Amino acid sequence: MERYEVCRKNSFQKFIVADRFLNFTYRVVNEPKLLFGIVDNIFYAVDDAMNSLLYMELLYKFVPEFNENFESRIDVFKLLVNKYKISSPGIQILLELNQIIQSHKKSSVEFVKNKSIIMCSDEFSCEKLTFEMVQNYFKKAKLFIDEINTLLNQNERNYRRYS
Asked: Is residue 160 very low, low, confident or very high in pLDDT (cuts 50, 70, 90)?
């Protein structure tokens, strides 16, 4: 199995987990701290979707070699956004979710207020995470993942003809 296929499969699995947590578990338990797990799964689903397109392009040598770090992959993906005219805000979602994850890691104080999570850093900057925000990220992530899967399906057919 090629690396892009593994990333595509992982993206699908992470998205299913995020869906279950968001639409079933969270509604039953109603615990705002579950939002962190949902954000993680959405982030990794979108990241793996991006990686699947990157690795397919790398396999057929349409993009240059790139480092495995997040910033390098985003930079190369920006080239593909222009090439394929990707309309969904995938890079924006990735950057915003990455920012939430980093804020969560760096926060010295976290508390729940009015069914939302407030994360405060040592510098007293605060960020808020709500169920509605996570739902919005989920919807945008679904559009992005669907668009990437469509591109992958088209490219698999096209590339197989020429290989």
From this structure: low
Give the pLDDT of residue 69.
Answer: 93
> How many angstroms separate the Cα of 23 from the Cα of each of 7, 20, 49, 144?
24, 5, 21, 19
* E-strand stretches of 61-159: 109-113, 116-120, 126-130
The least confident of 87-96, 125-134, 144-153 is 87-96
Kindly tell me the number of DSSP H helices and DSSP E strands found in the chain: 6, 3
143 and 76 in contact (C-beta within 8 Å)?
no
Beta-sheet strands, E only, within the chain: 109-113, 116-120, 126-130
Domain borders along the chain are: 3-162
| Domain covering 3-162: architecture | Up-down Bundle (1.20)
